[in-house]
Amino acid sequence: MKNSYSKTWIFFLSMLLIFFIGAYTVVQQGKQQEQEPEIISVTHEDVPAGQFQAFLDSLAENITAPIALLLLQILAILIVARIFSFIFVKIGQPTVIGEILAGIILGPSLLGVIFPDAYYFLFDPSSLGNLYILSQIGLVLFMFVIGLELNFDDLRQKMGETFAISTASIIIPFLFGMILSFFVYKEFASGQTDFLSFSLFIGISMSITAFPVLARIVQEKGLTKTSLGSLSIAGAAVNDVVAWCLLAAVIAITKTGSFVSSLYTIGFAVVYTSLMLLVVRPFLKKLASVYKNSELINKSIVAFLFLILIGSAFITQLIGIHALFGAFLVGVIMPQDMNFRKILMEKIEDVASTLFLPLFFVYTGLQTNIGLLNSPYLWGICLIFILVAVGGKFIGSAAAARFFGESWYNSLSLGMLMNTRGLMELIVLNIGYEMGILPESVFVMLVIVALVTTFMTTPGMSLINWFFPPKRERIIREKALGVFNVLISIGNPASGKSLFRVAKTVLNGYKNSLSITALHITPGTDTNPMYGEQFSEESFLPIREVAQDTSIPLSTKYKVADNIEADITKYVNQNEFDFLLVGAGVSLGDNAINKRTKLFKKLSWLNRKINYMLNRRAIFYPGTTVKDKVQYFVEHSDCSVGILINRGYTNSETTLILLQEVNDVFLLRYARRMLRNNPNVHITIIDLNKVLSSNKTALEYYDRELKSIFAASIKISRIKELTTDLFSRFNFMLVSYQAWEHFSENSNNEFVNIPTTLIINKKTTRFTVKTRKQKKSEPEEGIDPLYE
């Protein structure tokens, strides 16, 4: 090995030496062919001020180059968009709100007022052409993705009621918009465009729904598999298809000036759409049957699909119904094979939504000068636009849903959800503005409408939930029957098996019935809803496998969230679970920790201290669930919490229980359950501070409920010192959260070899033993309660 290493270095240095000798020889020979330069006399003024000044002048010249300015614009846009997206996600709003607002802030409404020099340097009007082209390419890609997200197989199954409700949610706000345009046309648009075009664009802007934003809100609220979720997503999908067909017709009518003249454009659009559906779609279906996975979908196939996408966008632009309709149509006609669609989306969506779409938002913001609304009267008109938009959509959706027999809760929620306009509204507004149909002041008002109606959806849903709180009959009934409800939060799907087995061993009782709900949360509310079903199936597969071999009922819940810890505790508290069980992952392997320990002597005192703290953190709070997350669960959950540190859990036949203080004696009840559930379990109790001998009540409980019944399976050890060798004798350990905190602050490396450990925090702090009469009338305290 050493000879090979030396040989490599000798070869490398030899090649460098040959290169430098050769390069030096060529340069020296080349200099002999140089001609004497013509001598030019210069004055003192012609001499540069210095080399550094020349460098600065070069920088100033380079930054104004078109490509440098475009890159600087993109950099500024992405940074501001990410910052505002992060802020709005933290307050429970869709990221699109933050991106739209970022565009307005970078525009003349704020940056142009506060820092006009910076604004005109960064967004020089002569440089905006490049930004516009990039934003339009992004929209073409995004509309293709929107088309891919629509599942027409699902829509066909829900076509009756859904189509009727969706139609009402378009027609009524469209009519309201046209009526409103009659009152504002003379003052704002009579000198710019004809009434027909203006009224049609106001109508379409009132009736649009942002399908992608709505789908993500439904997913975040955990409504995907509910009747409301299915109805709203299907309704929004139908709404989008109908609205884009209407928009194509409106553009055709607007460009030709009359309905009769637009028939040629509409006719060509119908013929083209028919060709795409009847000719191109079957061809693509055959293509998808051959190329079914990511291994087969290579660059050639992707390039071919891009050709169809760009070609379709070009044709629809040529016909006169806008390139975006062509891109949307190609997405719609893609094969319904969801795997094929997901592969395409993985290749396109992230680039389109994170790079190109923020450019569109900022370009829209550059055209949105809120300063134009410079009087209370104009803000009053803007408020009327908002009320008409909200009222029309709300009445159209909610009234139709109620007419078809939906509950008041579902009807009102549907009306609120369908008011989500977001990006789709901005696309329509930009088309109208570019065509000269929407005056600048009306354009600004409608951008504000898009912001307000999208922003109000989440708090509006919360308000409806407040008026219609979830029914507690099921929870009350289960409590009366003695059902002990446990929520298992699954991060890594593979951990589901271990968590379920631990719950079955430690929490299952004879007189109470154990019921388990498994919860998996995908981080990031911008997760595409198309992946929700796939993530849900994959996440719960391991825990379902182990649950089917038992009689314990298992239900599952899948959600997406940006703040996972808050969502878990919120779900626990709202559904009144009795116990929360979460996994803390697997800590650093013993070898890794031992290798670090061997370095202590070679490090300085400070480094040793840092390494020691990192070691302790890895042992006591392993994986991704670190101390602050564990503490969050403990402090914010209304029930007892168990944190499982999984060290390759197989069984709990040799279990160690640590008693550190008097409040830890509640662990004895868990010990009794373990012994009853599995006759092969053997438990060793280490009473570190003579807790049992100093607590008469606890000692009586131990003698009566444990020692007298399970004498061969449980014992109290006289060991007073915890060592790595001691822990290696056991494969499972129970410890209270308070004791674990104590050990994390005061112990060294003896906890390196701990077995799989369940850390339990209980809400009650009192340990009492009831009389037989009290036991019959009320549940025992001291554990959660865990009903016997």
Describe this structure in words.
The protein is an alpha/beta fold and 788 residues long. The chain has 33 helices and ten strands. The protein has a ten-stranded mixed sheet with strand order 3-2-1-4-5-10-9-6-7-8, with helices on both faces. Helix 3 (66-90) packs across helix 4. It is globular, with a radius of gyration of 34 Å. The model is unreliable at 586-626 and 765-788 (pLDDT under 50).
β-strand amount: 5-15%
Instruction: Give me the Rg, rounded.
Output: 34 Å
- The helical percent reads 55-70%
Q: Which overall shape is indicated by the principal axes computed on the Cα atoms?
A: globular
Mean pLDDT: 79
Number of helices: 33
First-last Cα distance: 67 Å
Side-by-side strand order of the widest sheet: 3-2-1-4-5-10-9-6-7-8
- Strand element count: 10
Low-confidence stretches: 586-626, 765-788
Structural class comes to alpha/beta
Sheet having the most strands: 10 strands, mixed
Features:
single chain; alpha/beta; 63% helix
Would you spell out the secondary-structure blueprint of this structure?
Layout: H1 2-31, H2 51-63, H3 66-90, H4 95-105, H5 111-114, H6 116-122, H7 128-149, H8 152-157, H9 159-188, H10 195-207, H11 211-220, H12 227-256, H13 259-290, H14 299-319, H15 323-333, H16 338-366, H17 376-403, H18 408-417, H19 422-434, H20 440-455, H21 457-467, H22 473-480, E1 483-490, H23 495-507, E2 513-523, H24 532-547, E3 554-561, H25 564-574, E4 579-583, H26 590-598, H27 605-620, H28 627-636, E5 640-645, E6 654-659, H29 667-677, E7 682-687, H30 696-707, E8 714-717, H31 724-727, E9 732-736, H32 737-746, E10 756-761, H33 772-777
Parallel strand pairs: 1-2, 1-4, 2-3, 4-5, 6-7, 6-9, 7-8, 9-10
Antiparallel strand pairs: 5-10
